[in-house]
């Protein structure tokens, strides 16, 4: 998505390739070097010696606005083609150079840019510089690869747009109703029709036209030698030439609006009406960008924001609110919106949204409200800088969208200068009521007979037709051989320290960074498996309401106080634990942690808050029951864990949510939320000594109840496998799940299971994705997961596909499960999958929250904390025979259940003949708390 580069802490000027700091700020800056090659390629580099990794990003200044006429979605389709073959790299070869050595790669397309990014061990940097230059200059796509990947993109469209109840609203209706002539009106993901019309010649012409050095920025951040990197860039990128014709530019000029408007659109699966109001806005380089960004935060950043506080919390007319200062390279749009709560109308939403925007035009915001918005934005920027890829994203986006990487280090200064008068001024200038466009999104069932499609289709002004004739042959001096791997940089792993307070609270502290950020999590070792019979969702609703009012603070007090500190306070519940977590800058931790403690120790579960949360949860289920992926997930636990304490929907179902009372929540809290059943984990910029002292001061008086802890949930052998199809009429895709019980976390085969799952479905290069996506184009992605818990574990494989190919995908998943047991994996395959596991693990430890989650899991499952440092060795020790044995013993397709959620009229004809004994449940009758999964039975 387009962005404003709120990326700074010092104001910078880049002079002659150097960096000069001008003014101080509390947020660390991004120190970088910037230069330009003779061929026009911008090079941005930044050294970080604290990581064993490096990120390589290439930002191209071509996006959806450059889609050729009749080819909407083409820039995004082409993004996929860039992962195919080059002259020197075989198809899918980039994954061998990244994921298979412990790294990752991906890409994204927005209206103004297409970006490719990798994170890899630093020893592989030279290979990635070579590979990015190679695909910039020698991309080769054949007919088979083109047609296969086009099918993948169509599945992505079905998943993100057609299977999402509001996909059409956000992807199609809002942009099309906002812009009249500019290509921004077209969806970046395109349409099935336009994708089908694209050709291999289109691909070749697009690459020749837009993928050139003068329109690209290379960003490299991580652990490398600057002189050596410069030599590699000179060797691989400097020989590349731009084609002779000038690159086509989008010159469309969007006319100013002359009055208000209203558009109504309809969708096949819209559980609750939605409304958006849009205005035209300036581009990302505008002097008003910072003020509009602050205005956006005031409207929807956090529970104390105006739209949430008014429409969701107070009036309860909205299930969800949203806003965006969507400022792009050429112009932008600003929008506010909401999804209606049950029983409320689009007109109510539109009136309430207009009133909130009017209040910003009519009266300056208070200094306190302004400070809260700025603090949240700045603290979020610190979180963005935790990773090398986050920093690279800031610099690349600033270069391409805002015209200079240095903007990544000046935009925060602009933010800090925004005044209340600025916010009011931009609200008046850009969001006048007489220039609004109200966009209503309703169910097809509400569409009047003969009503036209809305908005009407008008072809946008677009770029000229492209020709592949301008393609240049690759330079003769460009090296063709894959470069060697360098010396590996050893990671520095954290060393957790722990103490137990007299009340039984276990405290674990791990200092992991000098970046000014601390993550705190108070975890209670009880969750949905402890729900009383018939009260599914008790643990989840208890956790949700813990931060919604205490004996001394109201829900609004908690939201306002934490958000004023720039803290993210969140609560959640899983199967075997519940938690309240906090992310905050260290100088504010001493103020924020007592608020977390108050919510944990003294929640009051006020009746009004319970009714509000219950209503939100029921509205959420209304929306979720229209999404095949979510419906399948709701059915998974009742199927795979039938007859156990895990055999229900963890978040509850409509009947159980309506049955839960305040006494139920208070009883669950009293029984389980206690210091001798809890762990406090502090990670980030904090020493063990400071962490222990703060924990004692804040939690030392939390009294341990005299009553013993309730016994843990028991489990027994799960019920036999079953096959289930849930019919969601009109949904654009089917979700396929193949699942069965698996090991616990303390099983001695744990690491064997991790590696076996990695081979089967643990990444892009794993077998499931290779068979389902890469070879056949049946899904945007297929994968699997192993979930070992204290009491019961599970294995789940999943994919989303066209409704009519659901049966085929089931056969492919089961075939790969059987194949893993039939023969040992090769040493090469295991080496690659182990590297992927180790790389993912290391990157997860690279953030304070990720490290905290890892430590929390070890504590929950009773594993020694030194396991953090033993992970790599234990993964590497797994043998091919152990993987085969694990697959044979645990991943048996004959013992697996099948769950499919999709449109029955197209998926059932093949499912009922290929999946034995499948039971069909219409979504209107779906009840995850019933033994039959049907209500009334």
Write the layout of secondary structure elements.
Layout: E1 11-15, E2 18-23, E3 33-36, E4 42-47, E5 53-60, H1 74-81, H2 93-97, E6 104-109, E7 114-121, H3 125-137, H4 143-162, H5 167-178, H6 192-197, H7 200-210, E8 216-222, H8 226-236, E9 261-267, E10 274-281, H9 289-300, H10 306-314, E11 318-327, E12 332-340, H11 346-362, H12 367-384, H13 388-401, H14 411-417, H15 420-430, E13 437-443, E14 497-500, E15 506-511, E16 518-524, H16 538-545, H17 555-564, E17 568-573, E18 578-584, H18 589-601, H19 607-624, H20 628-640, H21 654-659, H22 662-672, E19 678-684, H23 688-699, E20 723-727, E21 734-742, H24 750-761, H25 767-774, E22 782-787, E23 793-801, H26 806-822, H27 827-844, H28 848-860, H29 867-876, H30 880-890, E24 897-902, H31 904-914, E25 919-922
Parallel strand pairs: 4-8, 9-13, 15-19, 20-24, 20-25
Antiparallel strand pairs: 1-2, 3-4, 5-7, 5-8, 6-7, 10-12, 10-13, 11-12, 14-15, 16-18, 16-19, 17-18, 21-23, 21-24, 22-23
Describe the protein in words:
There is one protein chain. The chain is α+β, with helices and mostly antiparallel strands. It has four domains: about 200 residues, 2-Layer Sandwich (Cytochrome Bc1 Complex, Chain A, domain 1), CATH 3.30.830.10; about 160 residues, Metalloenzyme, LuxS/M16 peptidase-like (Cytochrome Bc1 Complex, Chain A, domain 1, 2-Layer Sandwich), CATH 3.30.830.10; about 200 residues, 2-Layer Sandwich (Cytochrome Bc1 Complex, Chain A, domain 1); about 200 residues, Metalloenzyme, LuxS/M16 peptidase-like (Cytochrome Bc1 Complex, Chain A, domain 1, 2-Layer Sandwich). The chain is about 40% helix and about 20% strand. It has 31 helices and 25 strands. The strands form five sheets. It has a six-stranded mixed β-sheet with strand order 3-4-8-5-7-6, sandwiched between helices. It has a six-stranded mixed β-sheet with strand order 14-15-19-16-18-17, sandwiched between helices. Strands 22-23-21-24-20-25 form a six-stranded mixed β-sheet, sandwiched between helices. Helix 27 packs antiparallel against helix 29. The longest helix has 20 residues. The chain is globular, with a radius of gyration of 27 Å.
């Amino acid at each position: 998505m387009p962005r404003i580069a709120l990326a700074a802490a010092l104001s910078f000027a880049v002079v002659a390739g150097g960096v000069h700091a001008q003014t101080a700020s509390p947020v660390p800056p991004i120190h970088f070097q910037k230069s330009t090659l003779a061929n026009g390629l911008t090079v941005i580099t930044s050294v970080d010696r604290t990581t064993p990794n490096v990120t390589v990003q290439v930002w191209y200044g071509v996006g959806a606005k450059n889609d050729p006429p009749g080819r909407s979605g083409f820039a995004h389709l082409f993004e996929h083609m860039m992962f195919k073959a080059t002259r020197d790299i075989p198809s899918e070869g980039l994954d061998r150079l990244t994921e298979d050595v412990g790294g990752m790669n991906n890409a994204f397309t927005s209206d103004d840019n297409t970006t490719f990014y990798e994170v890899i061990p630093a020893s592989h940097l030279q290979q990635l510089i070579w590979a990015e230059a190679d695909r910039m200059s020698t991309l080769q796509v054949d007919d088979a690869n083109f047609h296969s990947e086009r099918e993948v993109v169509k599945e992505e469209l079905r998943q993100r747009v057609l299977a999402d109840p509001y996909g059409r609203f956000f992807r199609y209706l809002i942009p099309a109703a906002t812009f009249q002539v500019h290509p921004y009106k077209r969806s970046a993901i395109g349409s099935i029709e336009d994708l089908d019309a694209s050709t291999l010649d289109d691909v070749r012409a697009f690459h020749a036209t837009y993928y050139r050095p003068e329109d690209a920025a290379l960003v490299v951040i991580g652990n490398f030698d600057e002189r050596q990197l410069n030599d590699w860039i000179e060797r691989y990128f400097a020989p590349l030439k731009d084609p002779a014709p000038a690159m086509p530019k989008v010159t469309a000029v969007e006319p100013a609006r002359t009055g208000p408007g209203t558009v109504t659109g309809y969708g096949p699966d819209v559980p609750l009406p939605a409304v958006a109001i849009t205005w035209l806005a300036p581009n990302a380089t505008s002097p008003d960008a910072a003020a509009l960004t602050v205005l956006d935060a005031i409207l929807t950043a956090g529970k104390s924001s105006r739209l949430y506080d008014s429409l969701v919390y107070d009036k309860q007319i909205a299930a969800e609110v949203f806003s965006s200062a969507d400022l792009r390279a050429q112009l932008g749009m600003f929008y506010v919106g909401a999804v209606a709560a049950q029983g409320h109308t689009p007109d109510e939403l539109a009136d309430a949204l207009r009133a909130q925007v009017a209040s910003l035009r009519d009266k300056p915001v208070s200094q306190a409200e302004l400070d809260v918005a700025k603090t949240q934005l700045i603290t979020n920027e610190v979180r963005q800088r935790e990773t090398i890829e986050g920093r690279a994203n800031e610099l690349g986006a600033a270069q391409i969208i805002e015209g200079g990487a240095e903007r990544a280090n000046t935009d925060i200064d602009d933010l800090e200068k925004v005044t209340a008068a600025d916010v009011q001024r931009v609200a008046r200038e850009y969001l006048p009521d007489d220039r609004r466009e109200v966009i209503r999104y309703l169910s097809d069932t509400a569409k009047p007979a003969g009503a036209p499609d809305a908005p009407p289709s008008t072809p946008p002004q677009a770029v000229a037709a492209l020709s592949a004739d301008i393609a240049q042959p690759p330079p003769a001096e460009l090296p063709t051989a894959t470069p060697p791997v360098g010396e590996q940089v050893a990671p520095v792993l954290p060393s957790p320290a722990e103490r137990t307070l007299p009340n039984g609270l276990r405290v674990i502290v791990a200092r992991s960074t000098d970046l000014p950020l601390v993550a705190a999590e108070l975890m209670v070792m009880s969750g949905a498996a402890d729900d009383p019979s018939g009260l599914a969702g008790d643990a989840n609703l208890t956790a949700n309401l813990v931060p919604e009012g205490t004996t001394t603070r109201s829900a609004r007090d908690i939201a306002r106080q934490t958000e004023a500190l720039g803290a993210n306070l969140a609560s959640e519940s899983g199967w075997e634990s519940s938690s309240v977590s906090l992310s905050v800058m260290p100088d504010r931790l001493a103020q924020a942690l007592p608020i977390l403690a108050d919510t944990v120790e003294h929640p009051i579960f006020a009746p009004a808050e319970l009714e509000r949360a219950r209503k939100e949860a029921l509205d959420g289920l209304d929306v979720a029951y229209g999404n095949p992926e979510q419906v399948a997930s709701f059915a998974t636990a009742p199927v795979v864990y039938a007859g156990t304490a895990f055999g229900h929907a963890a978040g509850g179902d409509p009947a159980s949510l309506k049955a839960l009372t305040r006494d139920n929540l208070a009883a669950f809290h009293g029984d389980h939320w206690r210091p001798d059943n809890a762990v406090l984990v502090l990670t980030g910029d904090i020493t063990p000594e400071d962490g222990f002292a703060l924990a004692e001061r804040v939690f030392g008086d939390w009294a341990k109840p005299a009553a013993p802890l309730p016994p843990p949930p028991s489990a027994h052998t799960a019920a036999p496998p079953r096959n289930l199809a849930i019919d969601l009429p009109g949904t654009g895709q089917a979700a396929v799940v193949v699942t069965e019980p698996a090991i616990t976390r303390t099983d001695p085969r744990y690491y064997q299971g991790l590696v076996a799952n990695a081979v089967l479905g643990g990444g892009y290069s794993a077998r499931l994705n290779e068979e389902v996506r890469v070879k056949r184009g049946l899904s945007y992605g297929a994968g699997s997961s192993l979930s070992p818990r204290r009491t019961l574990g599970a294995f789940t494989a999943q994919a989303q596909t066209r409704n009519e190919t659901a049966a085929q995908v089931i056969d492919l998943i089961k075939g790969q499960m059987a194949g893993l047991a039939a023969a040992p994996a090769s040493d090469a395959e295991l080496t690659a999958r182990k590297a992927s596991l180790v790389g993912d693990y290391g990157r997860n430890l690279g953030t304070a929250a990720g490290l905290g989650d890892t430590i929390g899991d070890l504590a929950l499952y009773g594993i020694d904390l030194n396991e953090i440092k033993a992970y790599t060795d234990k993964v590497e020790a797994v043998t091919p025979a152990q993987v085969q044995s694990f697959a044979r013993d645990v991943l048996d397709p004959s013992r697996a259940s099948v769950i499919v959620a999709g449109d029955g009229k197209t998926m059932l004809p093949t499912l009922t003949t290929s999946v034995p004994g499948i039971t069909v449940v219409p979504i209107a009758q779906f009840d995850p708390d019933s033994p039959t999964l049907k209500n009334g039975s």
